[in-house]
């Protein structure tokens, strides 16, 4: 059904748009250089504790699951220690190649779990709402929708004032969208 769910650190439904934005960043990853074709070179580069570990599983049985790590390390092609700048590298844990990637790529990965959680306060669909009351302590606005026509009726109470009538559908739906 296209729903994304987290399994750790907690079980939760995820915001589809945020997950797809993240997957687009992974899909659009561009290698800027091939740092090494030999896994033992990773240790010599200082390829240390991963900044991020990314495990991918696909729906296509022909494409094996893979685990990638993003880490920083010194440039192995530097000819002097002064030139050995720290760069970002991406590597599969089960393969030999180590790829240099741009430093902006890390911004897509350093994220809090909250980023992927749905931000909506309610899980209601606006078309399912038939009545809504908004009250700020002084004023009360009560909205009801006619099921057949979808027309909104407005009833508002404020100190020394009362209003009743038909509401503008677009304005009311904008209010519902903001919930």
List its salient traits.
179 residues, alpha+beta, five-stranded antiparallel beta sheet, 18% helix
C-alpha Rg (nearest Å) = 27 Å
Percent helix among the residues?
10-25%
Instruction: Give the SSE order as H and E letters.
Output: EEHEHEEEEHEEEEH
The tally of helices reads: 4
> Average pLDDT value?
76
Shape, principal axes of CA atoms: elongated
- Summing up helix and strand content along with how strands pair, one would put the structural category as alpha+beta
Strand content: 25-35%
Q: How many β-strand stretches?
A: 11
End-to-end Cα distance, whole Å, is 24 Å
- Which consecutive residue ranges, at least 5 long each, have pLDDT under 50? none
The main sheet orders its strands as 3-7-6-5-4
Main beta sheet: 5 strands, antiparallel
């Amino acid at each position: 059904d296209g729903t994304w769910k987290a399994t750790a650190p907690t079980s939760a439904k995820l915001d589809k748009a945020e997950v797809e934005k993240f997957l687009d960043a992974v899909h659009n990853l561009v290698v800027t250089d091939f740092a090494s074709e030999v896994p033992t070179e990773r240790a010599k580069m200082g390829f240390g504790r991963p900044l991020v570990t990314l495990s991918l599983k696909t729906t296509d049985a022909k494409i094996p699951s893979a685990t990638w790590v993003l880490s920083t390390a010194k440039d192995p092609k530097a000819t002097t220690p002064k030139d050995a700048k720290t760069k970002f590298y991406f590597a599969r844990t089960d393969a030999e190649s180590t790829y240099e990637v741009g430093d902006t790529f890390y911004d897509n990965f350093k994220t809090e779990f909250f980023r992927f959680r749905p931000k909506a306060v309610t899980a209601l669909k606006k078309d399912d709402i038939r009545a809504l009351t908004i009250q700020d302590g002084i004023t009360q606005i009560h909205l009801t929708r006619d099921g057949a026509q979808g027309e909104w009726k407005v009833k508002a109470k404020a100190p020394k004032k009362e209003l009743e009538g038909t509401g503008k559908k677009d304005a009311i739906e904008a209010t519902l969208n903001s919930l």
